[in-house]
Structure prediction request, 297 residues.
Amino acid sequence: MKRKILHLIPTLSSGGAERQLVNVVSNTSNELFTHLVCTFTNSSFFAPEIEEKGHTVKELGITQKRPWFAAARKFLDVINDYKPDLINSWLFDADITTRLSKIYRNLNIPLVTSLQSTAYDQETILAGGWSPLKVKVLKQLDKLTMKLTRPYFAACSHTVKKSFQRHLGIDLSRTKVIYNSITPESLISSQSAFERIRKEFEVPLDGFLYLNVGRLDKRKNQTFLIRAFAEVLHNKANVFMIIVGAGDLEKDLKTQTKRLGIEDKVRFAGRRSDIPDFLQAANAFVFPSLTEGLPLV
Prediction:
């Protein structure tokens, strides 16, 4: 009999945790497991890849911020219909929602919390520009729901495991380190990648191209990257940069390039699924992220 795995993640927009969930679902045996992936909203980016592997994606239609109680009620309906053997949560809001669901109904279903970052470390809080008071409140909620439901933990690195043990006192006997994975086939680029990407983004074939891939937010530190690139342009003329990704800082980053007078040298590609082609087209990959659990790029 197939084991039923139910996942919950806030969205399936591009991101490291989202990519890792897709990797897990796509590379487990269809003869042994069936997966249902639930999101609060916005599943369109990665949903086709999951569905292509024969699994199901379901949106709960939750759009409000901190939607734990509303999401838990809807998630319980999914649990009742799907009757999973295991529930796997990804990222904070999903963690709290799955635990509230278990508390509401006193469910006897194992919970696995995937840990993807050093969220409570001081450098992570500073990098994200988060309110220390807000983080403290969320940390206590995390700790309380953890104690009430006793989930298992899958940490993406030993650093992340040690961070959560230090901040939340997670039970190490219920914690495993499972490194983030990359499917080798996913790194194969098309034969015309070099010319195609450079033509699409108007980068000369003989130009030196820097590439950055990541969510556009404070922790990924593209603001610093753009300043550094402006310094490079003082000495080199035939250089360019493509930034692949989307996020809250996109407008600010574009404004920054205009203020520095380098908007003709920096390209914003948005969300893309053909990352291997960008890697093939670039001369150098730059990754100024201030904090990571275990990066996938």
In short: The first strand starts at residue 3 and ends at 9. The two ends are 36 Å apart (CA to CA).
